[in-house]
Amino acid sequence: xxxxxxxxxxxxxxxxxxxxxxxxxxxxxxxxxxxxxxxxxxxxxxxxxxxxxxxxxxxxxxxxxxxxxxxxxxxxxxxxxxxxxxxxxxxxxxxxxxxxxxxxxxxxxxxxxxxxxxxxxxxxxxxxxxxxxxxxxxxxxxxxxxxxxxxxxxxxxxxxxxxxxxxxxxxxxxxxxxxxxxxxxxxxxxxxxxxxxxxxxxxxxxxxxxxxxxxxxxxxxxxxxxxxxxxxxxxxxxxxxxxxxxxxxxxxxxxxxxxxxxxxxxxxxxxxxxxxxxxxxxxxxxxxxxxxxxxxxxxxxxxxxxxxxxxxxxxxxxxxxxxxxxxxxxxxxxxxxxxxxxxxxxxxx
Amino acid sequence: xxxxxxxxxxxxxxxxxxxxxxxxxxxxxxxxxxxxxxxxxxxxxxxxxxxxxxxxxxxxxxxxxxxxxxxxxxxxxxxxxxxxxxxxxxxxxxxxxxxxxxxxxxxxxxxxxxxxxxxxxxxxxxxxxxxxxxxxxxxxxxxxxxxxxxxxxxxxxxxxxxxxxxxxxxxxxxxxxxxxxxxxxxxxxxxxxxxxxxxxxxxxxxxxxxxxxxxxxxxxxxxxxxxxxxxxxxxxxxxxxxxxxxxxxxxxxxxxxxxxxxxxxxxxxxxxxxxxxxxxxxxxxxxxxxxxxxxxxxxxxxxxxxxxxxxxxxxxxxxxxxxxxxxxxxxxxxxxxxxxxxxxxxxxx
Lengths: 349, 349
Description:
The structure is a homodimer of 349-residue chains. The first copy, chain A, has helices spanning 7-12, 33-41, 45-50, 52-65, 79-86, 105-109, 121-134, 147-156, 164-172, 174-198, 215-235, 255-259, 274-281, 300-314, 334-346; strands at residues 71-72, 88-90, 96-98, 140-145, 202-207, 244-248, 265-267, 286-291, 320-324.
């Protein structure tokens, strides 16, 4: 299917665009009343993800309101460990919770590689439905969690402010962690390949917890495994043409190493300056970011001024995707999201 | 009183030392059985802080076990808002909780500046008792939270993984936040002056949440207020001679600006390389850090190798204080803490 709005794909190829593409992490989410309505009907978050028609509807909701340059599959980074049998649930008002957690090499060995055709087929179906519905309007981004980030939850058994159990394992039992990450590389490669064959146009790896590691351990336990996934996808003729974005939150100190990963784009969080990041990696790679999600609690005028400042600082270089530096917050006013998207596209007029 | 072990003070003056000084953030804490025993007796955490004899005993506990080069006052960064009447409590297994929180300019105006002689006199007494007991063995570090970090809790009303309410205020009602921070500068200056007059030899500002801000907002809402406190203390002949350490966790991208703050030392978290930080600020300022607290869950051999690597990478430059990059974790094995301290002092032999 021919894609009409190619800004995102051009930016990822470092080609000039009329205006920078814009999309927002967690753009389909709780700040939208129509999302909250569907979420109530679906009873719980996992049902939303696992019912292709609902995942499709949620994915498209923000596209109906805002002039966004990309859709992103509505799903969760923990679908893989759930499909591996760890028993994922989401308690109301709490984060994710696993029934089982990974402690020993035996636990790792017992994990199956989930078959995308079966255990994760709901994702394949959702992608197909979304692409039918999008009909080439904008590209669709597929995604997975990074092996390290997914391992954090599998080892901790739930969310945790600093994932000390997973970080301990890196020092106490690195061989167990390496075995787990190696298995996650296989599973994640298959999973992303499944998404690509079903129709996604770009894939992104969310490394939400890469920034909890020392630079040495970031390279050893997070980046090196993301690189394996990138290499796997780039080596396969069926997936080689799909651009890949890596996002390691809080790890921008390692940007030069990330730029060598083979990925086409790098996500940047809001705690650093895009101009500085650009200066550090030159024209080698596309950068995506990095507005503070908190700015969306100000006014449309302030949001617009902040977007203009980002674009002015960036200048005329290619390879910019405008986004937030982290997911959109729950109570974000919708008029400020509108102002953000409009301000990015305004430069054209 | 003459201090016998002057390594910490020499390092802060960038003078050569026989071996680098070492102390550990949260060195008096839950990983020590003798701490847990006192904590149980005291019924709750606030009682421990507010009873000078107990605070003294807890402060000295790690000095009895380990060959540390500094003591740090046992207290909490939220003593100031508690003394301002916000009603601090610590629920078992939860973080801090305030009975009232700050939302409007009226809330800020209603806050008193606590009188160190009265509302915070327990801290003054604790410092005096500790210094009697230490008898010049090592310097005593006093501390406070940074205005931004303390404001985070006052606005949020409790701990929160990303303090979105406080970050929102920076965009929605910056004048309220500025008023609060200005008041906290006055209160914190008085408080640290009180600690200095009572006998502390070094003071440290803990800016645990500075890293949640964009670089621009870090300078505007966190660093600029810390600089005011530094300037206040350096301008007062009674406090001018006391070295000051700033620690903004997760904000090392702003290191050059911190090095211009007037502080003598900068704390560095574990997610960056000390060698890189050193290269960025040259010989202008002492650096303190930055071992990963998680390494203390490995073995004494691995801890020692990690310390040696830090010292090797640092080289012969003056101005290093060895510490963790964040507070010591609750279940840390004591033999690994021993190994850390020994490995630092071993270079001498």
